[in-house]
Design a protein that fits this description.
By secondary structure, the chain is α/β, with parallel strands linked by helices. It is 41% helix and 16% strand. Strands 2-1-3-4-5 form a 5-stranded parallel beta sheet, sandwiched between helices. Helix 5 links the parallel strand 4 and strand 5.
Length: 192
């Protein structure tokens, strides 16, 4: 049985470099034998996490939809933009809503036992590396196994061809190697 991977970028921007990167990584994961679902967080708008709102109205419908996507996948492939050396608000808000247990669910059920691969693209010289530290810390603390492999694309404004592929063959090879590791580990853990 193939690994099921949920892939998305922590950006709402239409021409997001991180969305382009996550699509490249998703394709590499499919090539490695995974069943990948690539989504855009813009299709699942959420209010800011607010326990008063949750208590009054219940979880937003899109939070429940996202949580069910997490439940039905074994692994996460996340492209993480870096805003001010940290995680984006939309990525953090998504994690916060999806982590909220509904009645009958175990705490952190949507994240518990998942494997995650982090990638990032940025116009800066570090390629989003500083933001990945925060994402890694958050996911590790909510029972997600985050692979040590990660890929960053620097000078993102000039890293992509017009068809959305990467210009640099070395970066493409890094993406393929990291996603292969994600697929192989996830498949092994599923069979355990």
């Amino acid at each position: 049985m193939s690994a099921k991977i949920l892939a998305f970028a922590g950006s709402l921007r239409t021409e997001s470099w991180n969305h382009k990167l996550v699509l490249i990584a998703a394709q590499a994961a499919r090539k490695a034998g995974a069943d990948v679902t690539a989504i855009r967080l813009a299709d699942y708008p959420l209010p800011l996490m607010d326990e008063d709102l949750e208590k009054r109205d219940g979880p937003p419908a899109n939070a429940t939809k996202l949580k069910h996507l997490f439940f039905s996948h074994d692994a996460l492939l996340l492209a993480c933009p870096e805003y001010n050396s940290s995680i984006t608000g939309v990525m953090k808000n998504t994690i916060d809503w999806v982590s909220r247990p509904a009645p009958g669910e175990k705490p952190l059920q949507a994240f518990d036992g998942k494997v995650a691969l982090l990638v990032a693209a940025s116009p800066g010289p570090l390629g989003g590396l500083r933001g990945l530290v925060t994402v890694r810390s958050i996911l590790s603390n909510i029972k997600t196994l985050v692979l040590p492999e990660q890929v960053v694309v620097t000078k993102a404004h000039d890293a992509f061809n017009t068809d959305g592929t990467l210009k640099d063959a070395k970066q493409q090879a890094q993406i393929e190697a990291a996603t292969l590791r994600l697929v192989e580990l996830t498949t092994k853990l599923k069979g355990a």
